[in-house]
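Predict structure. Chain length: 497.
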Amino acid sequence: MSPIASRSSILRLINATQHSHCACHGCASSKALAPGGQLLNQMRKFATPVEPVQKEYAFEVAASNLRFGDGVTREVGMDLMNMRPRKVGVFTDPNVAKLLPMKTTLESLESQKGLAYEVYDKVACEPTEASWRDAISWARSHDFSHFLAVGGGSVIDTAKAANLFTVYKDADLMDFINAPIGKGLPIKQTLRPLIAVPTTAGTGSETTGTAILDITSKSFKTGIASRAMKPTLGIVDTFNTDSCPTAVHISAGLDVLFHSLESYTAIPYYERTPRPTNPINRPAYQGSNPVADIFSLWALEQSVKYLPRIARDPSDREAKRQMLLAATFAGIGFGNAGVHLCHGMSYPISGLNKSGPKYKHPGYVTDLPIIPHGVSVALTGPAVFKFTAPSSPERHLKALTTFLTHARSPTLTSPPSSLPASSIGPALFDAIAAFLADLGVPRGLNAVGYARGDVGRLVKGTLPQRRVLDLAPGIGDVAGEDGVGMLTRILEESLEY
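Prediction complete.
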C-alpha cells in the first residue's frame, strides 16, 4: 500500500491547481473566466474566503563586475584610484597578511600617490558575531569611502558587513540578519564601493551579495543576503591560490561543487512563494532559473574534473586555474538561484562542533576546533541528492552523468541513461560518496565525532535556515512535521557511508 500523503503535500497540490492564469502583477487581478466560470465564482462567494498564496513569476540576474587573469591583483591600486577614494579600508586575515596576495596588494596601493588606506588584519576564519562587531566598529571609526577585501570567503564577507554597517551607522547586527533569526530588513541605501580579491577557489563571495557568520549563542551559522552587498568588482587572480594548503584547496573546491549541485537542483524560481509585493523584497536566492543553470552546470563539470587533480598534485596550474574560474561561475549560479539542504544542514554541523565533537580538520592552521565549510557541506551530500532526485530525475541524471564522466561509481555497471527514475537517487548517492572518498573527505558525520544521539540537535539547528530550506525540493512544510521527519532521515543516512 502506498504511504498516505501528508497534509502539506495535499495543500500544495490544491494550491497548484488554483493558479493557471498569468502570474504577473499586471494580470494578477484579471478574472478571465471560461464559460460557466461566472456561476462558479458566484458560488464561491458563499464559501469561507481563502487568500491564495501567489507564486513567483520572475527572476533577476545580478553579479559583480569580474576580472580574471594571471597577476591581475597588481591592478587594484589603479582601480581604487580611478574611483577617487577619500580613504580605503583594507580587510584581510592574519594568515593572508603574511602571503604573496597581500604583499602584491600593498605594493599596488603604495604605487598610487595620494591613495590613503588603513589595514584591518584581524578577520577571523569562520567569522562570529564578536568578530564581525569588532570589524564593524573599526570600520565605523574610520568612515571609509571605499573597501578592499583580500582573502577567502571569511574576509570578503566580513568586509561586506563592515561596509553595510558603516552606511547604517545606528543599525544593530540583527536588523539585517536573515529572518527568522534576525529581522531580515531590506537594504535600501546605496553601499560604498567594495573590491574583492579572493585567495581561495571556493566561496564565490566576490560575485554575490551574501555574507555568512557563526551565531555562537545558537551554535549555527546564518548571514545576510542582499544584492545591495555584492562587490563592485571581483579581481580573480590565478596566482592567489598558490599559497593554499592542499586541505584548503579541497574544502574550498567542495564548496564550489555543492554550490553548483544545489543551485541546479533547487526548486524552479516560479515555484517559490510568496511572490514579493515589491521588487526590493525579491530574495537574492530565487530558485533555479535558465541563466543560473548555465553557470552552475559548467562549474559542476569543472569541479568534478579538476578538484581530484589538485588533490593529487597541488602544483597543477591548469587545475587551479579552472577551479578558480569554477568558483566564480558557481558564485554567479548560486548567487541568483540559491543553495538548499547541504548548506542548510552544514551550519549546525560546523556550529555545534565547537561545543560538541570539537573535531579539528587536518591541514588547517588554527588551534580551534574546525569542520571547514566545504567539508561540513559535503558530509550530507550523498543522502541529500538521493532524497531530492525524485523531484527532478532529469536534472539529477545530468549530475550523475557528470560524475561518471570524470569519476567512478562502485556499484553502477550500466549506462546511467538506462536507469529507471527510481534508481537515479541511489546511484547518485554512490557516485558522490565515491568521489568524496577519493578526495579523503571524512565518510559521514560519525567520522567527525557526531553520533545518532546528536541528530535531534542538528535538526533543530537546521530548521531556522529558511532562506535556503525554502528552496529545497521535496521537503514539504519545512517548519512542520514534514521538515523534521525529512531532515532527520537525511542526517541519519549521513552518519556513515
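Summary: DSSP finds 17 helices and eight strands in the chain.
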